[in-house]
Amino acid sequence: MSLINGRKLDHVEISDRGLAYGDGHFTTMKVVDGHVERWEAHLTRLQKGCLRLGITEPDWSALTVSLQREIAGIELGCAKVMVTRGSGGRGYSPAGCHDTRWILTLSPFPDHYPNWQQQGIEVVVCRQRVGDQPMLAGLKTLNRLEQVLLRQELNDANAVEGVVLNTRNVLVAGVSANLFWRRDKTVFTPDLSHGGIDGVMRRSVMEMLKEMSIELRTVEAPLESLWHAEEVWLTNALMGVVPVTRVAQKSYSIGAVVRYLQERLLIDV
Known about the structure:
Layout: E1 2-4, E2 7-8, H1 17-21, E3 24-32, E4 35-36, H2 39-53, H3 60-71, E5 76-84, E6 101-108, H4 113-119, E7 121-125, H5 145-157, E8 162-165, E9 171-174, E10 178-183, E11 186-190, H6 200-211, E12 215-219, E13 231-236, E14 240-247, E15 250-251, H7 256-267
Parallel strand pairs: 7-8, 7-14, 11-12
Antiparallel strand pairs: 1-2, 1-6, 3-4, 3-5, 5-6, 8-9, 10-11, 10-13, 13-14, 14-15
């Protein structure tokens, strides 16, 4: 199912700048029992994305009403909202583009995530590196070509996820998730000021760690930092908190911090 500006359509104009240039952003959300988990955080992300990209804000109230109407009755699923600058003429200039287009799609929930959460996953270290882009750091823009190529690399390696570094050999994230690791009493997560996505679940986990009085440090760290970790996990809005049991040749136990975070997520939505 898809809605475009509230209308049931399954296509966009070929002049849409999201199609032509990736000129837009999006968020992906978990739907449970007819409501979106952490909707306010997702809405804030969409609003901040428009502000940073200079996209005219759509009618958020109309979007919210349409979303709530379409997900009513869904026990478990995924909702995705894309916002594009709309249609424009030839060339990069966004001048005169004020007819913002929002697109809502619904899809089934990935059935492998519950098993990942309980059993953990083994991940590889991706060979390809992502570039620094402070202009877009933290944003989930429609330009995901780096992630497409990384996902292709995972497919070729028959791997489910991977750890990604940038061209300076600094840890950034997983292919489709944010990255955390614990050493002793301190939890670390990559500094995203030069690149990467500041995920809604990342923010939730950071707040939970603060409430647990666990020291959290955002760092620019090399891959070797993971070899000294005692717990490693990945997060996104759909998978929640997924423990990592192996990175390359290094194995990890599923620790108490991961299990506590998972328990908190069951009640803190």
